[in-house]
Amino acid sequence: MIRSRGADAVVLGGGLSGLSAAYTLSKADRRVVLIERDCEVGGLAKTATHRGFRFDLGGHRFMTDNPAIESLVKDLLRDELLIVPRKSRIYMLGKFFDYPPNPANAVFGLGPSKTAKIIFDYCREQAAGLFGSPDIVSLEDWTVNRFGREMFELYFKQYSEKVWGMGCKEISGEWAASRIDGLSLWKAVKNSLFKLKNGKIRTLTDRFYYPAQGIGRLSERLKDEIEKDNTILTGSEVVRIRHENFNIKHIAVCRQGVEMDLQGREYISSIPVTSLVKRLYPRPPYEVLEAASQLRFRDLVIVALMLDRKSLTDLTWMYLPEKDIPFGRIHEPKNWSPFMSPEDKTHVVAEYFCSRGDGISGAGDEALINLTVRHMEKLGFIKACEVFDACVLRVPNAYPVFDVYFKDRLKIIMDYLDRFGNLHTAGRNGRFSYLNMDRAMESGIEAAEAILGKPAEKIKLRSEPDEVRPYHTRMVA
Ligand SMILES: Cc1cc2nc3c(=O)[nH]c(=O)nc-3n(C[C@H](O)[C@H](O)[C@H](O)COP(=O)(O)OP(=O)(O)OC[C@H]3O[C@@H](n4cnc5c(N)ncnc54)[C@H](O)[C@@H]3O)c2cc1C
């Protein structure tokens, strides 16, 4: 039975943040209803299945510097959790480059004169910094300052423009600083030479956690725990949110074409903040709606090719910055966990970054599969005849877009939402913030704590975590 009346909290959205919020409230014996539009929970951190093959919507590695989140994840997944060594490469100029950068590999790949130019440009930027801090507005400013112009032109410009679909001068430098805080060319090189204790620089980490059956297991486990005492409604879309005097009164949910009202004392929203604002009735002031219409998201198209061969690479990720390759990143799920594909087969997953209305988002599945096969073959990675099956998935709102204006627009929206007495926002799109999974979980837990009025450490996590099984990926010649 749906506890539509008198629930302590209604949670909007069943990604990791919404699930973590509902889990925390459930463990504190609160009555919760979680509403999820899709037919499964997990949001961006789902694992798709296709005829014996499993793949995430873009490979999701789990890592965190928060011991409570780490303990919760280990506790939920126990012996399903693997430790996977990361091996990433950048493919450009027809060669593979290590990521994080390795000086020897760079000199070999780029040649001594290009390498010298990178070092010279970097030193020049650092020297200029001694005479006053540069004005950092855009991603271009930030990257040139941290890596030098040559490195920016070579890698960051092309890759960032592929991901974001706009020039690096239009992307916020503040976002880059928060996303890859602490990283610079020198630190990346130092890391490769001396293996820094890199807990603080996430992008340099060399191991991560991964559930044997894909990242979606984390959401499934949270769901199992929540449903012991509470209700999750999947296939249910929040269509209207009624409020009065900055208090949410009830929400209208559409399920299988039928609308129903749900009521709770408190509400946690992890659906995109722009959707939240548009669903409020009475309508928010014009400037709030206008700000919401100007915040944008970047979508993702995933093309998985099933291959009639045992293995393709030994990599966890391969980045492809060059413009004439239409996808930006590929991964082979079998290198994350051997349980992701049948033993004698493998699959490779290509990620296309796109925006609504562009050529990629408008292309049909068959065209996208042919495009992927053609380019993978041209790159020499596969032979077209090895592809015996394929699958295309579309992921809307994969990345909040941090253009140089986003902060002012977001502030208008958040200032308005903060006036609501019983509404809490959480999650990546719910707060329009570039959160990884652990931070998304944290934000859901924090929203639940705001309702409970007690901090994280007081919330009882279950027993001590078990040992995690290390899993070493196969190294293929
Ligand atoms: C390609 C890619 C790779 C990534 N890789 C990593 C990684 O390696 N490591 C890492 O830590 N993080 C990674 N992330 C980030 C990670 O996916 C997110 O941090 C996390 O999944 C966000 O969870 P969330 O609950 O905040 O949001 P979401 O997962 O977006 O959940 C929001 C939910 O709300 C639902 N919803 C939306 N509108 C409505 C509505 N009107 N009614 C009801 N429900 C609605 C959606 O269906 C969705 O399930 C990656 C993200 C992407 C896109």
Q: Could you explain the architecture of this structure?
A:
This protein has helices at 16-27, 67-77, 103-110, 112-129, 139-147, 149-164, 173-179, 185-194, 216-226, 273-278, 286-294, 359-362, 365-378, 406-417, 437-452, and strands spanning 7-12, 32-35, 47-50, 53-56, 81-85, 88-92, 95-99, 207-211, 231-233, 236-244, 247-255, 258-262, 264-269, 280-281, 297-307, 317-319, 329-331, 346-354, 387-400, 423-425, 469-470. Helix content is 34%, strand content 25%. The protein is globular, with a radius of gyration of 23 Å. Mean pLDDT is 88; it is low at 456-477. The chain folds into 3 domains: 7-45 and 212-295 and 402-458, 3-Layer(bba) Sandwich (FAD/NAD(P)-binding domain), CATH 3.50.50.60; 94-201, no CATH class; 297-400, Protoporphyrinogen oxidase, mitochondrial, domain 2 (Polyamine Oxidase, Chain A, domain 2, Alpha-Beta Complex). It is an alpha/beta fold and 477 residues long. The strands form 5 sheets. The chain has a 7-stranded mixed sheet. A 5-stranded parallel sheet has the order 9-2-1-13-20, with helices on one face. It has a 4-stranded mixed sheet with strand order 12-11-10-14. Bound molecules: flavin-adenine dinucleotide. The site of flavin-adenine dinucleotide has 35 residues, from α1, β10 and α15. Flavin-adenine dinucleotide (FAD) is lined by residues 12-18, 35-38, 43-45, 58, 60-62, 237-238, 270-271, 275, 300, 351, 398, 427-430, 435-438, 440.
